[in-house]
Write a structure and sequence with these properties.
The chain is an all-alpha fold. The chain contains 28 helices and no strands. Among the domains are: about 150 residues, no CATH class; about 80 residues, no CATH class. The longest helix has about 45 residues.
Amino acid sequence: MNAHAPAAPPPSPWLLRRVVEVGLVAYAVFHLYTSLFGTLEPLNQRGLFIGGGLGFIFFRQAVLRWNTARMQACADLLLGLVGLYGGFYVTINAERLMDVMNDLTPIDIGMGILTILVALEAARRTIGWALPVMAVISLSFYLWGNDLISGNWQPPRVSTETAISTLYASTGGIFGFLADIGTRVVAIYVVLGSLLMAVGAGDIFMRAAMLVAGRAFGGPAKVAVVTSALFGTISGSAVANVMSVGSITIPTMIRSGYRKDFAAGIEATASAGGQIMPPVMGAGAFIMAELLNIPYTTIAVAAAVPAILYFSAIYFSIDCFARANHLMPIPRAELPRARDVFLAPQSLSAFGPLILLTVLLGMGYTPTFAGAAAIIGLIVIAGLVHIMVSFKERRGFAAECRIYGKQVWDGLVDGGQSVVIIAALLATASMLVAVLSATGLGVKFSQLLLGFSGEQMLGVLLIAALLCILLGMDVPTTASYLLTASVIAPVLTKLGLEPLTAHLYIFYFAILSAITPPVCASVYAAATIAGESFWKVAGQALRIAGAVYLLPFLMVYRPELMLKGSIPAIAYTIAVAWVMVVAISGASIGFLMGPVSWPLRLFLYAGAGALFYPSPYADVVGIAMVGGFLLLRWFRPVNAVTT
């Protein structure tokens, strides 16, 4: 051992760490309890959700800093107490604050100002600068815009008391409908995902993906796609998906012969798409269901085919690249046996809760109850599995119980940590949404867009796509979707688009912002794992996922992709979209049943463009072009060369 090596810092104080862990578990259990037995009164429930979230963000950081920066840790504890009490204060005084005849006291105003500031700092520490900066700008516009701006964009004059009443002491700001959705729906699915990972579902998903895709060309990469789809539908976060799955799949792909930049690009694109893959789809889909006041299953059904096409685009890109570079399937001897995956007791813990969740949602139960029931089912099934394992492998029953208890405890701790980040995100996003409503800014933006686009649907769609990507540069998908939907969705519906289609279109591009330069969080995470240049990985991500940027437009102009219309029309549209995806993937990679030169690539792009255009005549041309190319390659094969 090197005698001059710096000594490792002492561990964080046991008592403080344990207190924070107990608090996070209680926070997670609180949401499980209220999901099963009914939520509290609005301000009571939302106050505990936001207050607990803000508090534990700083308490966690205090634990991490205690031995290295004691003064900063103490400051974190103070900020955490302010955030925690800011939420509890609303809970304690809910009845008085909800009285329309009530005037705010100086203490009410002071607590409101402190809580808003702490919420902004909590968001900055957890999700970066972008959203808090936008919130500060909007709050400045709300408070002082009347004095600084004149004309049509001048906001109404507001007093400090009115602003605090809107943003803090009511169910319209921080504790508004976004906090309601977060505490009733989003929190329970975040906890479910954490518990699934804690009981070992990740290993089962990986082994199942190997069975599904391992024997295909480029097997390791296709395994990564299937695994990321399974993980992503639960985690609902592209970056979390990359960091958890990519730490395994990216090195595996590199060892199998994939270039670093291509391997990282595969994981980045696949991880981003998990948020549109039913049955869970992350937080954004549940928020969409509440905004549109429709069942969550309606959104899941409408999103199913576009999600499958998304992963088909990645799959075909990998297949073309693997065949071009002779990347062979995973050897059969290295694949697990089906019975060892699907009939193993541990698979019950992974797939049982998801099956229960899907069944309950299909039977019409609320997402809140279905998610809570899935958690109870998971805890019970995992316990039974450990009992079975203890008898089968002759382990000590007490030792197996300790393993089980640690898994559940760690899952609840991790779930609570993830929920507090959601609370900070929604608290900050709520400020923006409240300002857009209170100042009429959202309506003015909508009118501006209508005038700028000439009330043309395509123009608004392009602006919406650009706005989603710009907002998503350093903002989570949920926030990007919310902010864009508040401005763009009313314009799209005014132009005749169905609300569900409008919101899914926006949500889809909010997801794509995670892989679109110049700032794309999932690409950055994947590049870090691969040890490769960010720009190289970003370029490969665009190359791999080129076709997916057209899918949102297809949802608008070919609504059959959302399973609307007759069965023959739906089948025909899916087939056309599938052929388009194949053509773009082959042209982007430069290989489709053999090497594809640039003139032929342009020919395939032109055929895909014809299929993209919503016209029967264009479909005939596109099918003839792509089909003719494939038939020619079938009868006159071209030897593959490495590209």
